[in-house]
Amino acid sequence: MDTRMSLYHQKSKPTKNYGRFFKKYAWLIAVLIVVLGSIFGYIGYQSYENNMINNYQVKGIMISQSNGYIDFVTLANTGQKFVYIRASQGATYTDDDFSDNFQRSQGSGLQVGSYHVFSTQTAIKDQLKNFTREVGDDYGTLPPLVEVTSPLSDHQVHRLSEFIYMVHKYYDTNVVVRSSTSIFNRLDKKIAHDVQFFSGNLNNKRANFIEVKNNRKISIDGSNVYVNQIAFNGNNKGWQQYLLRNQDR
To answer: How many CA atoms lie within 13 A of 198 on its CB side?
Structure first.
């Protein structure tokens, strides 16, 4: 046999072996590619999400009893600048941790607000009584917030408007409303100048506050806590001006 032919056949054998290997373990290779792609995709998304959150100069959170114990001094050291604490919902429900959270938040360096979850099932006068009884005279350094968690009919929007007006009159301050754009646009015109908007739309230039990420994981004293990450829709200078306007009451 020709020596050159012999060398050619010797060199071609490994190629055949590699081919058999890839054919035999093709499923495993495909799984590895999918797993690695998912890992790098997740890391890339987390990086994008963190960059998006960090674009907001004034970040804050919304909390309730479901968030458990939070050290507010340490929270302020993570870069958060304000917190809204749930006080009540409807006509009878109150947050078990509101009083404790509110008291411990004082002196933390955070701006603090109180919020009520609006109910379509109970009388608005009873809801006002529930909220003001739980909060007392000191609702914090941020305007009281009313959260709407479901779609509303026109009649229900009118009742919401009446409730907002009662909160405004009781505390003689502006009121923040967290709702869909549709609900906010349908509020009674008589309260328009007393109401600020909290939107879930990141691109809503009209909103004073926006929800950046629900159920965001942040580390406090080495423990992971999941919170509703929100932000003031402006820069640090705008934030200081906002505080001056709303604390002049």
So the answer is: 25
pLDDT given for residue 166 in this prediction: 98
Three-state DSSP class for residue 86 = strand
**How far is 71 from 219, CA to CA, in rounded Å?**
11
**Do 201 and 188 contact (CB within 8 A), yes or no?**
no
Q: What is the pLDDT of residue 214?
A: 86
- How far is the C-alpha of 1 from the C-alpha of 232, rounded, in Å? 83
Q: Which amino acid is at 141?
A: T
The answer to whether 246 and 174 are in contact (CB under 8 A) is yes
* Measured distance CA(102)–CA(145) in Å, rounded: 15
For position 223, what pLDDT does the model report? Answer: 79
Give the three-class secondary structure for 224: strand
* Helix H or strand E segment including 150: none
- Specify the pairing of strand 93-94 against strand 111-117: unpaired
Q: DSSP secondary-structure letter at 137? A: T
**CA dist 2 → 60, 74, 180, 232, 235 (Å):** 80, 80, 83, 82, 81
Could you tell me if 82 and 113 are in contact, meaning their C-beta atoms sit under 8 angstroms apart? yes
* Amino acid letter for position 237: K
Cα distances (angstroms) measured from residue 151 to each of 56, 89, 182, 213: 28, 16, 9, 21
pTM > 0.85: no
**Are 98 and 132 contacting, i.e. CB atoms less than 8 angstroms apart?**
no
Mean pLDDT, consecutive 10-residue stretches, the chain (249 aa), reads: 52 59 68 66 48 81 93 93 98 97 96 98 98 96 97 97 98 96 96 93 88 85 86 96 81
| Residue 60, helix vs strand vs coil | strand
